[in-house]
Amino acid sequence: MRNLLQIKVNSKKQAKFATAIIFYTPWQEQVLKKTKILFCDATLEYCAAKFYQLFSGIGKDEASGLYVPCFWVLLTSKKKELYDTVFGCLKSSLFSQGIIFDPIEIYSDFELGLVMSIK
Prior knowledge:
By secondary structure, the protein is an alpha+beta fold.
């Protein structure tokens, strides 16, 4: 399945790996292609075992005018390095499909690792 990415990044502060699994569909790829504003949030309450949080990105589907989930990411950490890697892998994967993912604005609640990553 080309739209399931599993990435591992070595944490600088810990001797173990941090893991992220990114999920999205071909339809969501097309939404991401046109999305200029991205809303991001994470939850700790509804998360798969062995993961710290579920992170999601929501963008506007221009065809329907609705805001829809564009991707979900299971994360074992909320460190900046992991968010950097997640966004880098997401951009790279989409670019390999001919899609430029470059939102103009990203909105999120205050989560230090995410804020530092998207600055």
